[in-house]
Amino acid sequence: MSNFIFEHGATLRLTVFLIVLLLMAAWELAAPRRRREIPRLIRWSNNLLLVAIDSMVVRFLFPILATGLAVVAKDQHWGLLNLVALPSWVAILVSMIALDLVIFLQHLVFHAVPVLWRLHRVHHADIEFDVTTAVRFHPFEIVLSMAVKMAAVGLLGAPPVAVLLFEVLLNATAMFNHANVHLPKPVDHALRSVLVTPDMHRVHHSVRPDETNSNFGFNLSWWDRLFGTYCAQPAAGHEQMTIGLEAFRSGRDLWLDRLLIQPLLEPEPPHPRTSDEAAQ
Q: Residues 31-40: pLDDT tens digits?
């Protein structure tokens, strides 16, 4: 199994990524939650070009990725879970929950630390919210995120299959909860007791700072409730809420070159301001 994961893990992740991307895009066409204002060609082409650059940078900088490190850790008996005797299914479950918590805490830190917010705001500056927003991250943030994930995998000694399942699940759920899709209220209510839904995560992309600094989860919805950062609904409602950041709302800000240099552009506070606050 470890050899299969080491050799074919990347192919499996890419295959699932493309399938979920296409499924979410089709769902957005069939049952959109919000009206689209900007042509897809502009946003999608630049957002997807950014994820292509992210992938190339990660491949160049990291000889092995998280799943590969998990294989090495297992062979060398590195990490906590490789030092204790647990049933395989328990080790897998513990690893996936622990890694999800790490990603949640990392997200909190990227909002709280000004220099990290400058990187993360590339994700928040998208002025619409759909499946491609899920993959719109600055390459430097992706590199830091991969370093954090690999450190967590190494310290935890997560089983390779757990890391592969976690990465596949995280990518899929991130695209799901960023999708501009309509879910019936009872379905949304039931799902968000465990998973982050599109209506739940959309609040996090509001221009209002109190809403931007809520609902940090990408996969499990438990963490926001436990850490007191849960916000059930946006104040303006999902159809009327404003998505994005006040400082980056022009069409020019959607282009790839601007996304890459955005962390160097005019300084702003670690948390975005609403137009009312800016006017004061």
A: 999 998 888 8
27: left (phi over 0), alpha (psi -120 to 50) or beta: alpha
d(CA 75, CA 249): 50
Binning pLDDT at 50, 70 and 90, where does residue 273 land? very low
Residue 43 near residue 128, CB atoms below 8 Å: yes
The per-residue pLDDT for 6 is 58
Please report, for the chain, the start and end positions of each structural domain, with discontinuous segments joined by +. 2-279
List, in sequence order, every residue forming a beta bridge with 195; answer none if it has no partner. 220
The answer to whether the CB of 58 falls within 8 A of the CB of 143 is yes
Report DSSP state, residue 20. H
213, 111 Cβ separation under 8 angstroms: yes
CA 75 to chain centre: 30
Within 10 angstroms of residue 208's Cβ, the number of other Cβ atoms is 20
Burial class of residue 238, CB neighbours in 10 A (0-12, 13-18, 19+): middle
